[in-house]
Amino acid sequence: MKRMLSAALAILLLFPLAACGASEQQEAPETAGSGTAAAGQAPNANAAQADNVLVAYFSWADNAVLADDVDAVSSPSVLAPGNVEQLAGWVQEETGGDLFSIRVTEPYPSDWDACLERANQERGEDARPELAETAENFDQYDTVFLGYPNWWYSVPMALLSFVEQHDLSGKQVYLFCSHGTGGLARSVDILTEAMPDAAISEHVFDCYEQDAASSQQAIQDWVRELGLTAQESPADARQIAVQFDGGSVICQLNDSAAAQALRAQLPFTAEVEDYGDNEKIFYPPEQLDTSDAPLAQAGAGTVAYYAPWGDVVLFYGDYSENAALFSLGEIVSGGELVPELTGTVTITELPAQ
Predict the structure, then answer these.
(1) Cα(267)–Cα(252) distance, rounded to whole angstroms?
(2) Which of 256, 257, 244 lies closest to 314 in space, CA to CA?
């Protein structure tokens, strides 16, 4: 197989990617645990469109009254915008949805240690702090993003107040979290138990609290990979179909030069090859320009381009990140057919709806 000739090169090119930059703001305590970094995982092919989206979040900065004697230099984390507020704002920008800040009637202390003490007490008592308001017209939302900090291996109890006061049954829910060394801890499990009838995506975005301020690109890429961006018009849908005797696999391409170069060659036919037990590959007539293409790091469902060999890759399993593996987009329909792809396929561009 063509790719086997370059196996040594592929090994040399593997390297870990840093997801976030640096920030001095803090939102959650430094806890011990094993959180799972999930930014940029595979998209949900059945994701709702970007309308009817609510981005609800809890941020300490929105829930504390800054005392006159608080030193903003030594205690910057309470100042707006908080970490989760920033993340929520970027999700709102990308989805075009409505933004809702979850606020309690009794603000938390502006001193971080005192805030943690109260948060720990509420956690121990399994309290449900009273909220200042509820989200209006909640029934209209099909998709809800919930943002929160990791407080004491868990979530702020006010987030559970919100979940219990709003019926999320049947809604698609996506979680994003700012945390310390504890990562996601039990927060996802706790929210899953609190919303048994909601469709909670396993594709959770999380980043370290000190990196939140530099995570705009990462979290907006995550939203795009979920298929919930509102930045693209129907006239620029950029969808292609990989057609074979067993059906069609529909792919949403990104706006990179590599994806544009692939579109410019359509339609064409190609022979599908197996590579490993997680991908199918085929070769376009000409190589693609990868000068501005993002690296592929989204897991199963990714459409990618491996530059050294010039092949397009359809992943149906997880894969290792590679310095020469670039993202072209994601599979949005027919992903279950990818393992069955064989023989000659025809790749065409779909007309805008």
Answers:
(1) 16
(2) 244
